[in-house]
């Protein structure tokens, strides 16, 4: 971890790309005590107001949202479903059968695990799936009342815990990769209070990717301590160092599901299929966990069956099903992907290509990449990357970059121990903005000499 010194010339903002007086005024009016600790949506709103007041466009890297057109196969299928009248009909809470069958096929063809269509449940985005999983798993056993986050991670998952009034614990995995993960993970699990553990793979925000060896360690220890594993695959198959695009042909997306029957997977349609606006994701529960009977569930769900509890009690309490037409859209997308007629990975490789160019712009101007390795190899180029600048904490850097028309979020809100860093998302940065990004970074480096 790099030494963090007081920021250099932080209070002097002359000749910056964005009017410094307007930026300072908008920050003051935002009533956010610490910009670096602001939520993603708070930062978005603040930048929107600065852009409106100045008429100048930011290089927007704070939001982890897709920046590519939606899968046209889904659009056409959804239009057809709407014309057939599905908007007038409640969908079944457990999902339409064609989608469930394609979800099971997708899991087999791209993760190489076998599940029944019954355990494949559409959700209102992966976030509804995680919310439902937290709520349900925390009621399985009275002594297990805590979620363990293998961080860094998506800040909203902790916000969900705050809303639910649930406990959570966490650790930053970067310093304990490979075999070191075993001792670190067991030190948390052996306390006996962990109901579930969650991580993302590839990781938001660091873009590290867990190896099969690490996933096997997670599975073994979760089995030993009877902990449900929640695997967030929002960026499935987007480790572009390997070709995960061919259905049924190795290599397959790494997953803990190969080593345990005590898992719930969340697969987002937002990133891999660029279908974010319709808010539909996939929750896949291990068949054995779905059928498990747990006495503790009875008090809260009037059933001791896990699958029945999470679908007909928890999900039904959150929404009376997932948008009917969106289910037909996702079913069509998955069928094309499963049949090999639509290569979804090829579509999203643009994120990796942009990340490679953008990272070089930052490092050429005295910035450092914070999370830079996956064990013994360089990290992949993908949806996110992390950077720092000598002399700044991540929280300070987020605010300082506002004056240069660049937005990001601090790693401090992700559970990271690398407090010098910030997270950048490449998705909304257009290639025609690259020259302006490079120009602004050069000015930043000139005005903050090392």
Q: Runs with pLDDT <50, length 5+? A: 1-10
Basic shape: globular
CATH topology of the largest domain: Aspartate Aminotransferase, domain 2
What is the ordering of alpha helices and beta strands?
HHEHHEHEHEHEHEEEHHHHHEEEEHEEEH
* Fraction in beta strands: 5-15%
Task: Compute the number of helices.
Answer: 15
Largest sheet: 7 strands, mixed
Which CATH architecture of the largest domain would you pick? Answer: 3-Layer(aba) Sandwich
Features:
Aspartate Aminotransferase, domain 1; 40% helix; 2 domains; Aspartate Aminotransferase, domain 2; 13% strand; 450 residues; 15 helices; alpha/beta; 4-stranded antiparallel sheet
Please write out the topology.
Elements: H1 20-29, H2 40-54, E1 59-60, H3 72-83, H4 97-111, E2 120-123, H5 125-137, E3 146-151, H6 155-164, E4 167-172, H7 180-189, E5 194-200, H8 212-224, E6 228-232, E7 263-268, E8 281-285, H9 287-291, H10 298-301, H11 306-318, H12 324-339, H13 344-363, E9 368-369, E10 373-374, E11 377-378, E12 384-388, H14 394-402, E13 406-407, E14 409-410, E15 422-425, H15 434-447
Parallel strand pairs: 1-13, 3-4, 3-5, 5-6, 6-7
Antiparallel strand pairs: 2-8, 7-8, 9-12, 10-11, 12-15, 14-15
Helix pairs in contact: 1-2, 3-12, 4-12, 5-6, 5-11, 7-8
